[in-house]
């Protein structure tokens, strides 16, 4: 089985990574950390830069379990990429990070986390940043 972590270079992404590492290590399961987005937009801060990729890969390399980082920037939304990975891998749990938003912000902007919770076919663990 696989623990899948949806990663962004923000506090909520780091919290999801920490929890994913904790669970995968405790269970002895494979860990896949995914960063995804459509790309092509300069304001898209969900795609991590090369330095951040190296930092995450170095951290994963020190783990006593099989762990890998995958980044997708190919025109699909992060939600579509995560849904495809859940379908392709035997995911025992998907770990996502949550950020605090006002009720109005949730209403106007929608919620990526909510869409993931409603559409993926595996258990989802949502964690808040410390």
Automatic annotation (TrEMBL):
Domain UspA residue range list: 2-128
Residue ranges crossing the lipid bilayer per the database entry: none
SUPFAM superfamilies: Adenine nucleotide alpha hydrolases-like (SSF52402)
One protein family per Pfam: Usp
Top-level lineage group: Bacteria
Family: Belongs to the universal stress protein A family.
Protein name according to UniProt: Nucleotide-binding universal stress UspA family protein
Biological source species: Melaminivora alkalimesophila
Organismal lineage: Bacteria, Pseudomonadati, Pseudomonadota, Betaproteobacteria, Burkholderiales
């Amino acid at each position: 089985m696989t623990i899948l972590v949806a990663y962004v270079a923000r506090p909520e992404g780091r919290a999801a990574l920490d929890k994913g590492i904790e669970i995968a290590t405790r269970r002895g399961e494979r860990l896949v950390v995914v960063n995804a987005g459509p790309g092509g937009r300069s304001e898209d801060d969900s795609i991590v830069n090369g330095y951040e990729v190296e930092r995450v890969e170095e951290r994963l390399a020190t783990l006593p379990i099989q762990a890998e980082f995958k980044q997708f920037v190919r025109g699909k939304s992060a939600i579509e990429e995560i849904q495809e990975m859940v379908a392709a891998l035997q995911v025992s749990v998907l770990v996502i990070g949550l950020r605090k938003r006002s009720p109005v912000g949730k209403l106007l902007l929608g919620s990526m986390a909510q869409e993931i919770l409603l559409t993926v076919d595996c258990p989802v663990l949502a964690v808040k940043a410390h």
